[in-house]
Amino acid sequence: MHSIDFIHDLAVIMLIAGVVTVLFHRLKQPVVLGYIVAGVIIGPHTPPSPLITDQHTIDILAELGVIFLMFSLGLEFSLRKLRAVGATVAVAGLAEIVLMIWIGFEIGRHFGWKTMDALFLGAMMAISSTTIIVRALDELGLKREGFAQIIFGILVVEDILAICMMVLLTGLAVSGNVSPQEVALTFGKLTIFLVVSLVVGLLVVPRLLDYVARVKSNEMLLISVLGICFGFCLLVIRLGYSVAMGAFVIGAVMAEARALRNIERLIEPVRDMFSAIFFVTIGLMLDPRVLGDYLGPIVVVSIAVIVGKIVAVSVGSFIAGQEGRTSMRIGMGMAQIGEFSFIIATLGISLSVTSDFLYPVAVAVSVITTVLTPLLIRSADPLTKVLARAMPRRLSRVFGFYTGWLQSLRLEGDQAVIAGMVRKILMQVFINFCIVVALFLVSAYLVRDARIFAGWVSDSGIQKALGWGGALLLSIPFLIAAYRKLKALSMMLAEVGVRRSFAGRHTDNVRRVVAEVIPVISLAVMLVLLSALSSSILPPAEMLLLVLVVGALVVMLLWRQFIKLHSRLQIALIDTFQKPPAEH
Amino acid sequence: MHSIDFIHDLAVIMLIAGVVTVLFHRLKQPVVLGYIVAGVIIGPHTPPSPLITDQHTIDILAELGVIFLMFSLGLEFSLRKLRAVGATVAVAGLAEIVLMIWIGFEIGRHFGWKTMDALFLGAMMAISSTTIIVRALDELGLKREGFAQIIFGILVVEDILAICMMVLLTGLAVSGNVSPQEVALTFGKLTIFLVVSLVVGLLVVPRLLDYVARVKSNEMLLISVLGICFGFCLLVIRLGYSVAMGAFVIGAVMAEARALRNIERLIEPVRDMFSAIFFVTIGLMLDPRVLGDYLGPIVVVSIAVIVGKIVAVSVGSFIAGQEGRTSMRIGMGMAQIGEFSFIIATLGISLSVTSDFLYPVAVAVSVITTVLTPLLIRSADPLTKVLARAMPRRLSRVFGFYTGWLQSLRLEGDQAVIAGMVRKILMQVFINFCIVVALFLVSAYLVRDARIFAGWVSDSGIQKALGWGGALLLSIPFLIAAYRKLKALSMMLAEVGVRRSFAGRHTDNVRRVVAEVIPVISLAVMLVLLSALSSSILPPAEMLLLVLVVGALVVMLLWRQFIKLHSRLQIALIDTFQKPPAEH
């Protein structure tokens, strides 16, 4: 048969991976390390000479490994959890990532590496390894402790930031320069894409999967999940984003399906198989001689990862209001790098912007820091005691004051309620605006690139008017919703902001004006922005006027229906979150 | 990234497969049909033009689908079940396969096809589809009925015969001719390989997996299972057999692990994913125009499959002692072809001995017969009634007599016990002999092809003596065991066969002579046969004598130890079968 080579490769990978992982388990080391070592054994750099022949296919399977790894992370991620984790994790996560990228970049520059190499090194050092942390905490029996929950929260924040980082790095690598406008544009587009994907995904995907799950056929559920997952990945690739990000996002969307437990159970073996291949290929690329040549950087980076992460995360957690001991535990738990670093390294290679040595360095650092993780977690408490004893009394009193001051800052009572409502309304307006922008961008694509009207109408003005008008028509429910939310917000702000002591007997009038003016101005700003964004399909002035008049008529006639439609969509979306996940 | 093509292909396959299978489920048709239709939609022969770009990788994944399909069949097969199913299924299965191959061959010749095409057509028509049958019986709520159990038994027999057929077809295709000696040699080698694989496999694999399963890590168990599965497939490929057979055999071996439930649960999603790809690629290859051109053969073959199988299986079951109604139900349940036919068709293509049209014909026939299966099962009882009414009374009385006569034939009491013991002993001797032959063949390979002694000893005579002597030494426990079993058998035969009425006062002496002579002669025959088989490493006469003398000395000195060793191995093997499978 024609594919003996490939079966041979797979057999070698699976056999050696199996043996080595069982060995590593006996040595109480993570399975992931076993895979990497298996890869080194199989690899072309160690005798007995290359055991892999069909490198192309193995690479593709490894890429499937990345997709399934990220998809599983997405499944575990869940937007519910994101709402539950508070400010601590955001501060600690952000502090860690910014500091680590900076440290990594500086180390790279210090060793005289290329800018891109230094940047990718920073990115690789930024993200801790969920796999390793979960395993280590599990083995030490600490998985249910409070600090572990915060670690998981920080990991979620890291995941999001990592996704952003990957998008940014891809953009950087492709365009080569870092103009702020471009970064802003990239992030703007990404944000709109993510918001729309999440909203549409959450409305459609969980319902679809729950419908399929009702058949009680594992096979059908699995194929549907894979179909949706790869279909979304395809869309993501077409839009120029990384497939890893796509898998993560669609995983997070599927996490809201009631059949989540079942989906996880079905995806687990598939993920384990392909991720094993992924980790083995990491080992395959590892040339022991490179490790010797780069011993210096490896040691420096390892120390930087451990010390940097402990300091950044601990201080970040402390600043965000955690106790000293807990902060230390959190920091010590996250002092390693893992699968995400490999994915970023793979990204660098596939974009061909990084040097060959970066990969083995990342792998070596990951191995060293992984092995040390359980030790570090265990030594968190003793170290805290030592630090507490060594710290001058005045400093520790300052720390105590800080914690107290921070707690006094928390909003309470009415203020907290108002702040919560403002945040919620702004979020809703933002989401609606993103959807409207997406509608116009898609319409622009359809009219200009796909030329869907070209067959029927020859005049480009009418084509544009049709496209722009269609987008406007579809946007109306969301624009109305945005307008109503903004009005509610301005009324509230007018009530709170325009004090009677200041405006005297004009108070009511001033309030009314504020409440009316703010939403109209906001909406006008939105429309102008939209026109700018959709400039490529903005019809000529007279047609635009016609379209706007028709739009206004439609709004007047169907105001109530639009509101009903939108609130139905909104309820459906909220429903998705409030349905309890089915127990297995 | 470099593998966008592939992700694109996979996305298209999974998306369309997902949609079509959900649709097919609503239409109450088997999922497998949905996959094939999805393949046709995606395929190059239907608009919108080819959606698949990286055909190489998709083909490889489809081949993984075959491996996992066969592996799952092996897991469900279980040697225990084989021991439980009786003569009925062997007779019915054999009757069906021989008749169908013959019918298929004749149909092929009738249409003027090549000999190989006709032969492969016969093979494709011979094997019914486990997947379709299980599904149909499940949906009709008949899965636990008596006749369903017999159907499953026949399917097991079919699986074994299909494996033999594939080996034979491969041999035929490669060598091109069909000399009886070659067939005998092929089957001899295959038998030895299978027996040794099963014995060694059953001793090692279930224990290994149970050891791994104790860790309670799904990931580790899965990777170990995959490692063993692909490792064995590799061995099988190296020996020139089909990878499908290897997957099936190693599956059957793993079926004896206590962790079977867990293994099945882990393999299921992986199998579903890859088998979906396999079935879709079947659709991919389907050119609707070919279907039009070969409408005649398709109709004829479909009718032949349905009528032929119903007649062959029903009559076979009836001859083997089933009631008329049950026989009819069994026959009507098996009147379709499915996954095995595709695997055989794939084999023909990969060996490039069959014509292109054979594949679409097989697929079309499979689709037609699959759709008709539930109808046929439901109409079994009415048809039986009609037949019973239409049948002349005399004929039905003959049938009644036959059933009664058959039941009177069954051995009872002492005779049954003795027959059972004889069968068991002969089986044990056979297994031991296979192991010994395998030891000599491996030794011949090591000495002659791998030249393992070439580094130490230059004289080829000494090399041969070492190899032959080593094989003999390792064989001694099995030879002793064979000798002892044969002795026990001859004593029993002497007791039963040499009647006092015939031998008079010499009875005891005659019996003793018979009991002593038979085993010695058998063993001598074995050794001569061995010498012939291992002729390539048979040392020169004087060295051979030396080796034999040393062997005899070892036997005398370590007789008891050898017996103990062998019985320990035997107990371990029996243990494997007697451990109850762990419940999930």
TrEMBL record, chains A, B:
<keyword id="KW-0812">Transmembrane</keyword>
<feature type="transmembrane region" description="Helical">
    <location>
        <begin position="186"/>
        <end position="208"/>
    </location>
</feature>
<feature type="transmembrane region" description="Helical">
    <location>
        <begin position="543"/>
        <end position="559"/>
    </location>
</feature>
<feature type="transmembrane region" description="Helical">
    <location>
        <begin position="31"/>
        <end position="48"/>
    </location>
</feature>
<comment type="similarity">
    <text>Belongs to the monovalent cation:proton antiporter 2 (CPA2) transporter (TC 2.A.37) family.</text>
</comment>
<feature type="transmembrane region" description="Helical">
    <location>
        <begin position="220"/>
        <end position="237"/>
    </location>
</feature>
<dbReference type="GO" id="GO:1902600">
    <property type="term" value="P:proton transmembrane transport"/>
</dbReference>
<dbReference type="GO" id="GO:0016020">
    <property type="term" value="C:membrane"/>
</dbReference>
<feature type="transmembrane region" description="Helical">
    <location>
        <begin position="357"/>
        <end position="377"/>
    </location>
</feature>
<keyword id="KW-1133">Transmembrane helix</keyword>
<keyword id="KW-0472">Membrane</keyword>
<feature type="transmembrane region" description="Helical">
    <location>
        <begin position="465"/>
        <end position="483"/>
    </location>
</feature>
<dbReference type="Pfam" id="PF00999">
    <property type="entry name" value="Na_H_Exchanger"/>
</dbReference>
<feature type="transmembrane region" description="Helical">
    <location>
        <begin position="332"/>
        <end position="351"/>
    </location>
</feature>
<dbReference type="InterPro" id="IPR038770">
    <property type="entry name" value="Na+/solute_symporter_sf"/>
</dbReference>
<protein>
    <submittedName>
        <fullName>Cation:proton antiporter</fullName>
    </submittedName>
</protein>
<keyword id="KW-0406">Ion transport</keyword>
<feature type="transmembrane region" description="Helical">
    <location>
        <begin position="298"/>
        <end position="320"/>
    </location>
</feature>
<feature type="transmembrane region" description="Helical">
    <location>
        <begin position="117"/>
        <end position="138"/>
    </location>
</feature>
<feature type="transmembrane region" description="Helical">
    <location>
        <begin position="425"/>
        <end position="445"/>
    </location>
</feature>
<dbReference type="InterPro" id="IPR006153">
    <property type="entry name" value="Cation/H_exchanger_TM"/>
</dbReference>
<keyword id="KW-0050">Antiport</keyword>
<keyword id="KW-0813">Transport</keyword>
<feature type="transmembrane region" description="Helical">
    <location>
        <begin position="84"/>
        <end position="105"/>
    </location>
</feature>
<feature type="transmembrane region" description="Helical">
    <location>
        <begin position="60"/>
        <end position="77"/>
    </location>
</feature>
<feature type="transmembrane region" description="Helical">
    <location>
        <begin position="150"/>
        <end position="174"/>
    </location>
</feature>
<feature type="transmembrane region" description="Helical">
    <location>
        <begin position="6"/>
        <end position="24"/>
    </location>
</feature>
<dbReference type="GO" id="GO:0015297">
    <property type="term" value="F:antiporter activity"/>
</dbReference>
<feature type="domain" description="Cation/H+ exchanger transmembrane">
    <location>
        <begin position="13"/>
        <end position="377"/>
    </location>
</feature>
<feature type="transmembrane region" description="Helical">
    <location>
        <begin position="513"/>
        <end position="537"/>
    </location>
</feature>
